[in-house]
Records
---
Amino acid sequence: MENLSFLFSIPTLIVFGCGCIKELGKRVKELGGSKAIIVTDKGIVSSGILGGIKDILKDSGISFTVFDEVEPNPLDTTIERGKEVAIREGCNIVIGIGGGSSMDSAKAIAMRVNNQEGTLLDYVGVNKVKNPPLPIIAIPTTSGTASELTIFSVLTDSRDMTKISIGSDLLTPKAAICDPLLTISMPPNITAATGMDALTHAIESYVNTMATPVTKVLALESIKLISKNLRRAVSRGDDINARTNMLLASLLAGMSFRHTRLGIAHALAMPLGSWDIRLPHGLANALVLPYVMEFNLPGNLEAYGEIALAIGENPGVTLRETALKSIKAVKELIKDIGLPRSLKAVGVKKEDFDRIAQEAMKSGNLAVNPRVCKKEDLISILEASYEGE
Ligand SMILES: [Fe+2]
């Protein structure tokens, strides 16, 4: 299942390496920025990361204002407040620092400053953005979402607390500054959940119908890096080697799924992050991924076999045996990094399965999943994830 006719483009300038945050001032100037709005959350402010970034901007003679009101699963109303700040302060560049929530908020705020017609909700969907946003520089402090180079901004509709996404090539950040030192302060539970988000990106991209020879190389390398480094990054946050490899793995998976889209796990993660359920995105993926793999296995046995070998499993006697080892290995990884292993354990109720499946059926990710699935299939996957192991 390989797509031999493809386009491949990553318009984001990627700056990667320990200490590369020092280049921020230079990159802001290259993009014509003179007044920045820094979009972030209170955790980044209290971690001290923001202080260092302010100093770099001051030393480069760039003025800035800080918008630090981003919450987990950011609301459309938060974006509108950030837009007002950016307009009032006359900002001409947006810097998003943090995890997916901060980077996705930065993208949406940059978009709204130059697309002021209607409300933010009018831009939900794909290719609804008309004017290029303010230039965006994304600085990840987690290793998972890869929002630093994707076209999506994932937010929450404050009217009914449903997760929504705005997708447009125009939302792709102009530059991503990926400094592993900024991920050191991430606590173990967030390291684990975001790492599983990256692994889910890599696996869903590798097995889906849009995979190309280029995206497969990127996804497989990401899977190798995560299987070798995630346990270490969770166990010892100051292991800079593990942190560097995890940030690289997240980036490679992002380069891959930017072109392929994802699969059932990400379709389910949207409603699992909605309403009163509101699971963190990476955790939602980790809870369903092994059972999505079980469902998908017949759709791309070969790819799952290759994933098992990339993780370091020995080949089985048959291809099916090898492929099954990929699921076993993912379950072992989730156990070792200490994440909850069933929907039951995190309080998701069986009564919600119908509406979760209903909402997931709207996802564009299902169109590229290696196995065609119906709503009843999603409910079966949720039932298996509910029991877990
Ligand atoms: Fe994700």
---
Amino acid sequence: MKVGIVGLSQVGKTTIFSLLTGLEVDLFSQEHQKGTAKVHDKRVDVLAKMYEPKKVTYATLEFFDTPALKIKDIKERTAVFNAIQNVEAMLIVVRAFKNDSVPYPEVEKPIDQLKATLDEFLFRDLDVVTNRIGRLENAKRKLEPKEETELKLLKRIQEALENEQLLSKIGLTDEEKKMLGGFSLTTLKPIGVVVNVDEEQFSEKSYQTKDEVIKLCQDNGFAYVELCGKLEMELNALSEEEKMEFLKELGTDETGIERLSRALYTQFGLISFFTVGKDEVRAWTLRKGATAVDAAGVIHSDLARGFIRAEVIKYDDLVRLGSEKAVKDAGLMKLVGRDYIVEDGDIITIRFNV
Ligand SMILES: Nc1nc2c(ncn2[C@@H]2O[C@H](COP(=O)(O)OP(=O)(O)OP(=O)(O)O)[C@@H](O)[C@H]2O)c(=O)[nH]1
Ligand SMILES: [Mg+2]
């Protein structure tokens, strides 16, 4: 899944992009950057220990860094959103960290930054929708029935946006969403929020307007994660052992970045299934509700085309019983057909014939 990283100026967007993707970036460059981030999943580590494969592959998310949004600056907004039209989800970065040597964004309180960023999302969608309405209304011909339906829907959406409602919250049907698919509407996409705190805020688990930020995220179904960009950068520079030691002192076994990628993955409606063996242990990504034949297709189109059935064992059963054989002997391996709905943590072997 492709995720756009957006926010006001100097909040830590590029820092978080760099931490997520492991790419070295020039903080002063205005280039758009994209990169791939590993989605932390302890289950993959456990499976890798068990199978000792040649290769271990984690699920990934693809991130796109963007230049800062400036409040009510149409030109900047258009540039930012045009550059990430293809993303399927948004990650908003909000700055809580205090540091007078880093210029503050236009509004300082985290809740105000979040609201201002969401306003830009709403304005963007309103721009797109209003343009399209104008084009339909000014068409010098009679509209086709399909266009009439679209126009009616767009007007309803326009009104919602004018009332500052996120489109993900107005109960659009799947058919309506499909009709809007080509417009890449920002507020229809899943949203995650990351608050960049400083060390003091991190250890006190508190920052200005935190309650309001959390409430807004909960009310709208946004993923919410706090992390300290500076601390994460320091962690990054350590060896694996030093890192684990440091994290233990902090009372956790996961970095903020690992927590972030996992939280987004879940909140964006993604699940993982696994394939295992001596060659490779791998996590693959599916949308919740996808079927066994979808899973086959993710691995290779031949596997979907020639799909016969799939063998499924549950990760928890495998770990509890210690081997595939033990799981089979306990009668816990399932043979499933193409319409089986894959569950997070399924270990799948596809039987196929092409
Ligand atoms: N103290 C502190 N500084 C940070 C933290 N995160 C980022 N910075 C610094 O803040 C400055 C801005 O960070 P960037 O990651 O470039 O922020 P940005 O949102 O990409 O900035 P623009 O793209 O210019 O809008 C840099 O000097 C970072 O080193 C943090 O958690 N704590
Ligand atoms: Mg930047």
